[in-house]
Amino acid sequence: MSAFQGTRMNPSKFHKSQLKFLAFLIPLAIFMALPIVYIFFHAFKPIDELFAYPPRFFVENPTLQNFVDLFTKTNDTGVPMSRFLFNSVVITLIVVVLTVIISTMAGYALSKKNFRMKKAIFEINTLALMFVPAAVMIPRYLLIDELGLINTFLVHILPLLAMPIGLFLVKQFIDQIPDELLEAARLDGASDFQIFVRIIIPLVKPAIATIAILSFQLVWNSVESSSLYVNDEGLKTFSFYMSTLTSTVEGNNVAGQGLAAAASLIMFVPNLIIFIILQSQVMNTMAHSGIK
Amino acid sequence: MKKKPNKRDYSPWMFLAPYIIFFTTFIIIPVAAAILLSFTYFNAIETPTFIGLSNYVGLITQDEVFMQKILPNTLTFALIVGPGGYILSFILAWALAQVPKRMRTVLALIIYSPSMTAGVAMAVVWTIIFSGDETGYLNSLLLTMGVLLEPIQWLQSPEYLMKIMIFVTLWGSMGVGFLAMLSGVLNINTEIYEAGYIDGINNRFQEIIYITIPSMKPQMLFGAVMAVVGTFQAGAIGVALSGANPTPQYAGQLMVNHLEDYGFIRYEMGYAAAISVVLLIVVYLFSKVAWRLFGEKD
User: Which domains does chain A have, with CATH numbers?
Assistant: First the structure.
């Protein structure tokens, strides 16, 4: 082993030969983190620092004023900000839970059951990994209109439930579970449903965590449903409200910047926390993500 | 479909039903409808009338904006952001795999974090940074350094908008594909490397080409498909940054925006559907290239 001069992947401890990688990675990581660190500071700046010229990167006298303003603000039609946040939280929770259940169920069937069309369905799903929802926004709109979903709460939820990448990842993950285990449970008299709940779900927790994150990012950041399918202001989401702040940021409206930064932070922080909590599960799932 | 292997076992369908219902409703039917509508004239009020290939012919021969701006823009954007972001993801994943775990986790988290909220939410930050007057961060920085004499309207200028879009999208492109490749690099058996060196590989570059990439083809393909989709998904960024559709002098106009312009602003649904179909075909062709490079079967 000591004579081996090549790359040492996944080293267990630090060695000075790793410095060259760090010399490349650390500056890049800092550069990539800058905009995020920047919103963080910006969100806590008092008004005179927002207006300061030349603009400063760091905040000197942090204040929660921007958050207070944001929470007490109502939009043009009198809908309070908290309403948008409430909508977003409810929609996100429902979508994440349902997506996880639906994908895991389908993944179980595609991985462990034998039936005709099994292969075909999985291949169609793999093809659908390439699907770009924005490309079919017109027919989607017409369909949603036809189904009577315009201006309903459901329109935020239903279109996001089938997530090809979620099914793909969970199916690959369930493939790792040995058939013998399920066979043994079946001999002990477990029903299909019991096998699914007692064996599959506990064993695929990492994949479930991953789908949950991906689905969370999709729905929490989504503005499409609010901007296209909903006219009723009270039914719109926080991410949409936040995107309307963008237009007011243009030009000299510096006061709006503090609000926008505070809103960005509210958008960003949940993503970050969830990812930090679940990151090892995600990496575990990604090991099985390959398309073969 | 009714004939089952041995006994009539409907259980797979019970587990699959919810997924298939939503998948069909919100993915298959819209794609099929886009294809059908693309052969019609449809203004969202009257019933669609069949007009054959006219929409496609019009798109190629009469839509000057499409041929002169949209298509070149989309291809430039896609060719830089797609492969660029992908190669960057791979290099970062490869370098990250060679530092110890704790450091790697922190760095990977930072590099991944822009992709979590990339897109519209982050457009706010970028509009402040690239703000057009002297209080914009970039302007202020360049003015103090003496690079500029007067502020530039970055996001309203046809000259810079596209470059900024590419930059911002690349910044946020280390997403799921990046994570997949990172775990791909980490899971390669070290013995393969040792064997490779015995077989005469003598530098890092050869090592990447002959060992690393071939050993993680499935993750490479997954990453590539994610890169392609991410690229075409990012279409809204130009409109979000400049705050207008169409973007100033169509400088940042991509196919997705053109589609939205015809569909929801001009209500030419049939024509918009034809653009959809062309877009889906472009995405498919890009993915096909990835499949050729890294797929294990064809």
Answer: 21-63 (no CATH), 79-245+274-286 (1.10.3720.10)
